[in-house]
Amino acid sequence: MIASFFQWLNDTHGLNFSIFYDGFDQSRFLTGLWTTIHICIVSIAASLVLGLLGTWVAGSRSRVGRLLVRAYVQFFRNTPPLVQLSFFYFAVAQLLPTVSDGFGGQSPLVSGTGWAIVAFSLFAGAFNVEIFRAGIEAVPSTTVEAAESLGYSRFKLYLHIVLPLAFRICLPALNNNLINLVKTTTLAYAIGVPDLLYAASQIWSEVFNVREMMNVLLVTYVGLVAVLAWIMGRWERALRIPGYST
Q1: Could you give the 3-state DSSP secondary structure of residue 244?
Q2: What fold is seen in the domain 37-94+106-239?
Q3: From CA 227, how far away is CA 126, in angstroms rounded?
């Protein structure tokens, strides 16, 4: 019924939403959507891990570790993500060995999708380091001193006391950064990753329905961001402590 409706819409009004009635276009679009979702999920998870590790090292006694984290944050915060993505894909990738594809040819060790995940994770992770650091610094010093007086080691203090409180404080800023990461994934198109934008551009270049596909893209990305914002909002409400959270 849906396919028939969009076919009728095209025949009578010239609104060609081919992804709803053409199997081939629909398959390409869904593949691009899955690729985008995959990049988003893996990049979000990796950036959170990088943020936590970077914050831990930045607060350690190792001067070398603190300098490395500072250099990492400054580099990825102060350069455009498209330049970073191009650097990894066109420069770093050339230094890695190739592997056999099983048909007598050679394939790169890391695919374009892999480099997109690496670049976006490092980019968002640099911001997460600063977000988590700000949250940790906002934890009352009296709370930390009380935990230390009870014999907590630095790791247990970080894991059981500081992080749970810091998360509650920095979630709004973290939410903004992760939403920005989802929007940044559209840059994967620049290195030929078959994401949502890439699939849509293939469809409109063959079907000549740019107007329709741009509207579909807009609604799809609004939906993806809305889902992430809803999840983060639920997480924020679940962690809220009455009388403590900002």
Answers
A1: coil
A2: MetI-like fold (1.10.3720)
A3: 24
